[in-house]
C-alpha cells in the first residue's frame, strides 16, 4: 500500500522530471488514472495502472491535477493522469430566446459548462443519455440541437 | 510548486438525504460501530435554524458532547454543503484543532430534497439516505443525490410491508440508476445493515492523519 499525503509537484518540473526519468529506468513510472470529476477528492483509494494500491490522503489545500507527482522514489514514481473529459456540444437555434433558455437550464442543473463560438459545451460526468434526456423538451421545440461531442 | 508540510486532518464523510429519512438515526448507529473499531470520531450536524440534532446526539451519550458541533444552515440546507460550505469547513477545522488525534468527522446535512449533493471541497465521501416509506419509485426519479452519492442507503426496510413497497424492485432500480455503485439496506431502529455502511466507508476512505512531511515519499 502506497500512502500519498502530498503532491510533490508537476512531472514536468525540471528537478522532478529528471528523477522521474531515472525512476523509469530502474523500475517504472506508474500512472494513477482519475476521472476529471473526481480530481477534487482529497481522500480515496485507487490502483495504479501497474496494480499498486494507493491510499490518497491529501491536505485540504491540495488537489490532484494532470501530471501531479504523487510518489517519487529511487526506483518508482507515481504520476496522476486525469482521464479525458468528454463534452456534449449543444447549439441553440438562436442567440436570443433559445440561448437564454439553454443557459438557464444548464445552470439550474448545475452542469459544468464551457462556451465556444455560440455553442454550449457540457462536461459529461456520467452517461451521455442522462444529459440528453434532460434536454428533450428544448430539443422537441427545436430550440437546441446536439451537434457533437 | 510549494510542498505542503501541513497536517492532514481527519477524513470527512457526509450524510445527506430527504427530511426524516433517518440520517441522525444512522449517525447514532454508526457512532458505536466506528468507535468500536478504534476510530477517533466527531460529528457535525446541520439544521435549518436550530441545533436539535446536535443536542439529540449530545444527550445520547454515545459520544463526548464536545465532539458534536452544530451548524445552522438557514433556509437552504444544500447551500452549506455544496455552493458555500464555509461554515461546515470551519467547524471541521475547529474539531481538527481541538482533537489532535481525530480520524473521522461525520457531517449530517439538514434534511433536503433529492437534488442535494455534497461538494468534494467539504467531504471526501458522502452517502445519501432515503427511506422505504418515501415510496419505491424514489430511485427511479434519478435525483442527483441518488445518482451521484458514493453510497446510497435505503433505510427503514422494516416498514416495507406496511407501506406496500416492493423492496427488491426498489433495490434493483437503485442499483440500475447508479450504474452498479454501492447500495446498502438498513434498519436504524435495530441497527441491521449498518455494518455495511461502516464497511463501505472503510473500503473507500483511508483514515489516519500523518503529516505531509513524513509520509508521501515512503511506502509500506
Ligand atoms: N421504522 C423505522 N423508523 C426509523 C428508522 N430510522 C429512523 N426512523 C425514525 O424516523 C424518524 C426520523 O429519523 P431521524 O433520524 O430524525 O431522521 P433525519 O433524516 O435525521 O431527519 P432530519 O434531520 O430532520 O431531516 C424518527 O422517528 C426515527 O425514529 C428505521 O430504520 N425504521
Ligand atoms: Mg437529522
TrEMBL record, chain A:
Q: Which organism is it from?
A: Skermanella aerolata
Record-linked SUPFAM superfamilies: Urease metallochaperone UreE, N-terminal domain
Task: Extract the Pfam families matched here.
Answer: UreE_N
The membrane spanning regions, by residue number, are none
Organism superkingdom: Bacteria
Q: What is this protein called?
A: Urease accessory protein UreE 1
Q: Which gene encodes it?
A: ureE1
List residues of the UreE urease accessory N-terminal domain: 16-78
Which InterPro entries does the annotation name? Answer: UreE_N, UreE_N_sf
TrEMBL record, chain B:
Q: What is the lineage of its organism?
A: Bacteria, Pseudomonadati, Pseudomonadota, Alphaproteobacteria, Rhodospirillales
Question: Binding of GTP: at which residues?
Answer: 17-24
Q: What is this protein called?
A: Urease accessory protein UreG
Residues covered by the CobW/HypB/UreG nucleotide-binding domain: 13-184
What's a Pfam family in this record? cobW
List the subcellular locations.
Cytoplasm
How it assembles, according to the record, is:
Homodimer. UreD, UreF and UreG form a complex that acts as a GTP-hydrolysis-dependent molecular chaperone, activating the urease apoprotein by helping to assemble the nickel containing metallocenter of UreC. The UreE protein probably delivers the nickel.
The answer on whether this UniProt entry bears the keyword Nucleotide-binding reads: yes
Entry-linked SUPFAM superfamilies: P-loop containing nucleoside triphosphate hydrolases
Please tell me where this protein is predominantly located: cytoplasm
